[in-house]
Amino acid sequence: MHANDALRQAATTAGVPITHIGPALGKAPNYVSNSTSRGSTPRCDTMAAMLNVCGYVLVAVPREDVPATAIKLD
Hints:
Elements (H helix, E strand, L loop, with lengths): L2 H12 L3 H7 L6 H7 L6 H10 L21
């Protein structure tokens, strides 16, 4: 799954509107929508911060240890 799709899935699962992510990071409400519409892929630190707003963390684990509930990025 692409990073932007993973962020949207995390937000949806957590019940966090996409427009709340930007302001939580000190950005405009349309920050995420503008970035995804341009086809931008967030840097790891930015992705980690955005996922944190949704109650998720960005981690690297061995493939065989990935839990079934994980949102996997390609």
